[in-house]
Specification:
Layout lengths: L2 E6 L7 H16 L3 E6 L5 H12 L5 H25 L4 E4 L6 E3 L8 E4 L2 H8 L3 E5 L2 E4 L5 E3 L5 H11 L4 E6 L20 E3 H9 L7 H10 L3 E5 L7 E4 L1 H10 L11 E5 L2 E10 L4 H11 L7 E3 L8 E9 L3 H15 L3 E5 L2 E7 L9 H11 L6 E5 L2 E7 L3 H11 L17
Parallel strand pairs: 1-2, 1-9, 2-6, 3-6, 4-7, 9-11, 10-12
Antiparallel strand pairs: 4-5, 7-8, 11-12, 13-18, 14-16, 14-17, 15-16, 18-20, 19-20
Helix pairs in contact: 1-3, 2-3, 5-7, 6-7, 9-10, 11-12
Bound molecules: aspartic acid and magnesium ion (MG).
Magnesium ion binds next to loops.
């Protein structure tokens, strides 16, 4: 008998039949004698639909009210799932995030979990109930208002609850059989990765792999919660995301191949744009002032490139990438300091994509960068920007080249599977 937290994503509970199917699966886990906490996402594309609706009513919805609206999506699926379980003879209780004790900061739309007070959940578990918690939401410690944790954050709710109730592991049920070497919607012959370290998964999630929410992986790493990403549409084993020491241990025991793959996966992100500050005086402190202005707007930037000074002119161009949604704010902030700094102009390019190869194996294998760039060159793809970490190489390419770049890298690192990857459901929206 174990205590487990299972999270079901929106595509797993898209309609009434799917909710009943998921309920059967949960009932089986419960009948096996486990304590079960379920975290549930809104049905199908409900969150997007609620957002569209809000924008039709109000072009700039008030953030508190938007959270009131969006949290109803998860509340619907939680209540419906509880009904389905009760009909199967399994006692179940649904809770909102607030009722479940998910305490957050007050930042509407992007609140962070500060604490979980799982008193009610633990009591319900003791009484034999399956506990169903509405994902992606909590209650602000200060204002007592309902908050949301950011798009895709039901994963984070699940891992945080797993840590709070002392679960052995957290299962994330989705519409694919785990984490793949690339998005199976882009690379048809992507392969399931059986195990990943928290570090690799963090890099993949940060670079646009949507299968797990970034903060969920951060949480799992700091609380040492093993994650099992798997499909709710099959019984297949998925991907375990665990500490590297556990992976090394399994290698020594011989239940994982001794040889570490060089590249574990390829992620891509088309949600960023590139700002270029043109003709920046090449003097000490100018770059600092530019990025201070961006930081003051609380905008996170990603890659930065500064060109060599144009000969004799003492001016340079500085480019950086940022979430497309922040571009207007960043340009306004820069325009305000243009006269003071004396740069010549601003340009913005939205038609870019970032492609990243990730793997702990590159620490010990020289030449990974060369192979990656070779593959892109052979595919006739120009690199616009480059950045690296110890276990990642990222490039920015034109958006139209992204799919070809991913495919080229996937083949070059011999990640292609014999068979096509299965995508069971979901619009990938
Ligand atoms: N329903 C929310 C979203 O679509 C949260 C989640 O699914 O994790 O972003
Ligand atoms: Mg998700």
């Amino acid at each position: 008998m174990a205590r487990v937290v299972q999270k079901f994503g929106g595509s797993s509970v898209a309609d009434a039949e799917s909710i009943q199917r998921v309920a059967e699966r949960i009932a089986a886990t419960k009948r096996d004698g486990n304590d079960v906490v379920i975290v549930i996402s809104a049905m199908g594309d409900t969150t997007d639909e609620l957002l569209d609706l809000a924008l039709r009513v109000s072009p700039h919805p008030q953030p508190r009210e938007l959270d009131m609206l969006l949290t109803t999506g998860e509340r619907q699926s939680a209540a419906l799932l509880a009904m389905a379980l009760i009909d199967l003879g399994v006692p179940a209780l649904s809770y909102t995030g607030s009722q479940a004790g998910v305490i957050t900061t007050g930042t509407h739309g992007n609140a962070r979990i500060i604490d979980i007070t799982p008193g009610r959940i633990l009591t319900s578990l003791d009484e034999g109930d399956v506990v169903i918690v509405a994902g992606f939401q909590g209650v602000s410690q200060d204002t007592k208002d309902v908050t949301t944790l950011g798009r895709g954050a039901s994963d984070t709710t699940a891992v945080a609850l797993a840590a709070a109730v002392g679960a052995q592991y957290c299962e994330i049920y989705t519409d694919v059989d785990g984490v793949f070497t690339a998005d199976p919607r882009v690379v048809t012959h992507a392969k399931r990765v059986p195990v990943l370290s928290y570090e690799e998964m963090l890099e993949l999630a940060a670079c646009g792999a949507k299968v797990l929410h970034l903060r969920c992986v951060e949480y799992a790493r700091s609380e040492r919660v093993p994650i099992h990403v798997r499909s709710s549409f099959s019984e297949n084993p998925g991907t375990w995301v665990v500490d590297q020491t556990i992976i090394d241990q399994h290698r020594r025991q011989g239940d994982l191949p001794v040889e570490q793959a060089i590249i574990s996966g390829i992620a891509h992100d088309a949600s960023e744009g590139k700002v270029t500050v043109i003709g920046v005086p090449d003097t000490i402190g100018t770059a600092a002032r530019i990025f201070r202005a961006i930081a003051d707007e609380e905008i996170n930037i990603d890659m930065i490139v500064q060109n060599v000074s144009r000969a004799g002119l003492g001016r340079t161009d500085i480019s950086f990438t940022l979430p497309h949604s922040e571009a207007a704010k960043a340009r306004d902030a820069l325009k305000r300091i243009q006269a003071e700094i004396g740069f010549e102009g601003l340009a913005y390019n939205q038609d870019i994509a970032k492609v990243s190869v990730v793997g702990v194996g590159m620490r010990t294998h020289p030449g990974v960068t060369a192979s990656f760039f070779d593959a892109l060159a052979k595919a006739d793809i120009n690199l616009d920007m480059i950045s690296t970490s110890e276990i990642r190489i990222s490039v920015v390419v034109a958006a139209k080249d992204a799919a070809r770049a991913i495919q080229a890298a996937h083949s070059a690192f011999q990640l292609d599977a014999q068979t096509e990857a299965v995508v069971y459901a979901g619009t990938g929206r």
